[in-house]
Structure formats: C-alpha cells, structure tokens
C-alpha cells in the first residue's frame, strides 16, 4: 500500500476506482502529462470487483454497430499497450456467433456489425459448424453461425497490471486501501478519503458496482442493477478435442451463453451465461448462493457441447453492473464538465477499456471526443421514466451547484 499524507494535496486529475476502466483512464491522463492520482478502496491486486481474472472476449461482433467501431479503436490501443509494456495481452482465437431460430435476428446484427467495420469473417450452417469442430460441439440444422476471424481473448490480469504499471511510469500515483467518503464538485473539486483530502481540477468516477453508492449522493440516480455472475470452467472429456476452438456466443436464449477456450485452467473450457443473479449491494456478492444459471448451462452443455463434462469443475464469482438496455452510461456532472463518470458497463466494458479511458480523459480535459458518446448518454432513461422506474420514481434528483457526496467506497 502507498500511504497518503494528511495534508491537502493537489492534483491535475484524480480517478476513483482502479479497475480496468479507471486504470485505462488514469493511464491516458498521465500519458498526457497531467499529474494524476488513482484511488482504490481495496488492496491491489484484488478480486472484489469486475476486472479480475485471466480472460475476457474481445470482438467487433455486436448487435449495436457503435460498439464495433469503439472495439476497433480499442484493438489498436491494446496493441500499443503491448508494445509499451512488452506484454502479450491479446490472443487471436476467432469468435463463433451462433443462433438457432429464424429469422436469426441477433446473429444477423452481429454479422452486420463485423461487416460495418470491414473485419474478416466466415459463415457456416449448423452442420458445417459440427464438421469444423467435430467432437466439441453439435448444433442442430436450424442453427446459423459465423466466425469473426480477428476476434479473440484478452489476458485480463496482464492487461490491468500493464495499464497500472505504465501509468506509474508516466508519473502517476496509486493509493490503494483508500476509500472515498466525500466529493464536493466545483471548478476545483475536493475529494476526501479515509486517509486524507485532495483538490483536483478534474475527477473521473469509475467505481463499477459501487457506482450507485458514489453517484446518488451527487444527485445522480441511474437504473443500475448489480448482478452476481457464476464463472464456470468445464472439463474437456477427450484431450485435444477443443484445440483450435474459438471463443463463442450463442445468442439463442434470453441470456446468451458464451465461452472461451482453455486459458486459465489446462484442459478446461470457460462457459458462462451472460447474466446473473441480482444483488442489492456489491458486499452481498458472496452471500448469493443461487445456482439456477449453472443448471441451465449444464443442460446446454449436455445438448450442444458433448466434448465437455456436464458439471463444472471450478466456479468463481464476478459481478456485472447492468443498465436496462445493457449499454454503459457516460456523462459529466451538471454545470461542471470537469467531473465525469462511467458506469453500468453491463459485462461488456473490459474490451472497450482503452477507448473508453481515452474518451473519459477527453471529457474532463475539454478535448474533442474520439467517439460519439450519445448512445451512452443517461438522458435516454429520463425519457423512459414510465418504463424504467425504481423506488425513488426518478433517476435524477434536483441538482445544486455543489452537492456534497458522503459515500464510502
């Protein structure tokens, strides 16, 4: 842990939250020579948030084309980070996207996004998929599939560590085990923690599952649902059957099934449900014992993935913080554009992190934005209050120019 002084310290920028979004943002700020402090409530490294673990899928195949354009930018930035840190972060495996029922709407949207950014792909019938990956999967004839050839996996723990190490090389300072208890917006923002007080010209809040606790005292009340996710690893029955098998997404169900080839644990494939069990607080993550999703995944594997044992060998925990439309929220505080927030990544934020970090840096420094962030604008929920309601019946409470936030992270 890096200790902080009790005297008031001044920084050009402060980022709260040292997960992948916060670390990528801090990296960008320090790279542009802003004296930057990165605050993290837990000891680093830790597994309490949404950025731990060893693998994440990276893909341009999405139902929304704007995601594909941002991923395309992120891919180049991941390559740059690999060069800067001499670390292998990306592994090209390809991504198989399948769907069972006509008109195959989700599959077609994923395919169109890949086409929109001109990435190479190949299309297959269900029978052709079975032949290509014989012994690993067996899909019915009504399935359609495509492989995004340039997709793959990110080595998540190495990616996070690389951002943090490079941030420090650029002169950035990390204070872990330091929770924020008060934020006072203004032209100069005051941040009080359990160990000290800071003043800064710019503040970015990237606190993941703690977003509501941090933002509600600032008058920002967004429709965020924390989900506990079971991350499952399934043993391969016959060694070698899954050699060359890509990452995959089956869009057929209400909650898509996704998987990654063996990386964390030799001889096992990571297969999970894109969804989880709602919890009221991130501190409740390990209190939730619901395994309904594991039962559904077991049924799926028995039916479509005969190359795997139908019972997971290892189950780990993670969290999503999701919005109703599964599109992240990005914005700035009313009257003070020097205070920005990113939240509700909905299980899709890791791959986007370099591009999102760049955008967050641009927001608080007044630079032209490298991406159109209108799809991420929280105003979309204010226009849908009849649809999205919670116990307060309003997602944005009246603002004052300087609202004190007393929210311990």
Would you summarize the structure shown here?
The protein has 409 residues and is an alpha/beta fold. It has helices at residues 20-31, 65-85, 105-116, 126-132, 156-169, 211-215, 292-304, 349-365, 379-382, and strands at 9-11, 13-16, 36-39, 56-58, 90-92, 95-99, 121-125, 144-148, 152-154, 173-175, 180-184, 189-193, 197-200, 203-205, 225-235, 247-250, 257-260, 268-273, 277-279, 314-322, 329-333, 336-343. The strands form four sheets. Strands 6, 7, 8, 15, 16, 17, 18, 19 and 20 form a nine-stranded mixed sheet that branches.
Distance between the termini: 17 Å
**CA-atom Rg in angstroms:** 21 Å
| Proportion of strand residues | 25-35%
- What structural class results from the helix and strand content? alpha/beta
Question: For the residues shown, what is the average pLDDT?
Answer: 90
Number of strands: 22
Largest sheet: 9 strands, mixed
Extract low-pLDDT stretches.
1-5, 384-409
Level of helix content?
A: 25-40%
Number of helices: 9
Globally, the shape reads globular
Structure in words:
The protein is α/β, with parallel strands linked by helices. The protein is built from nine helices and 22 strands. Strands 6, 7, 8, 15, 16, 17, 18, 19 and 20 form a nine-stranded mixed beta sheet that branches. A six-stranded mixed beta sheet has the order 10-3-2-14-22-21, covered by helices on one side. A hairpin with a 7-residue loop joins strand 17 and strand 18. Helix 1 packs parallel to helix 5, helix 1 packs across helix 8 and helix 2 packs across helix 3. The longest helix has 21 residues. 48% of the residues are buried. The N terminus and C terminus are likely disordered.
